[in-house]
Amino acid sequence: MKIFSFPPIVNKQSKVLILGTMPGAKSLALNQYYGHGGNHFWKILFYLFSEKFTTDYETRKQLLLKHNLALWDVLQACVREGSLDANIQEETPNDFSTFFIQYPGIELIAFNGKNAEAYFSNYVVLPKKIPTITLPSTSPANTWKTFEMKAKEWGAIIR
Q1: Full-prediction pTM beyond 0.85?
Q2: Catalytic residue annotation
Q3: Which of 9, 24, 53, 102 could form a disulfide with 71 if both were Cys (CB 3.0 to 4.6 A apart)?
């Protein structure tokens, strides 16, 4: 089945762009980035910024913008059964050329896992040199790192 990602969460003050691959089935059903309760993404961000964790999606989005973070996915669309990146086929990347023109303040690209970095490298040519960092996936499928280990590495996004 063909699926589509969400628009970016971003504003003109955003400095760090966090990129995932493609929303999973639960996220798509909820129409929310990282909607699966077992994903550590939101828990890590609230932890890093010493803010009280919430499941309220509007508050989550505001946390990103408050800390000059942007969130998007590398892929705009693909065919995939289930939620695993390994099942992605017929992928189409998002329009990063336009994105970087609209948001020239991006100073760092942080990949949520190696798959996001791999798809980005395959499809995107940056208009200017922007440093990148590949962080451990926050997916519940990433069981080889603890929450604490992931959170420590994710601290690199704090500017």
Answers
A1: yes
A2: 39
A3: 9
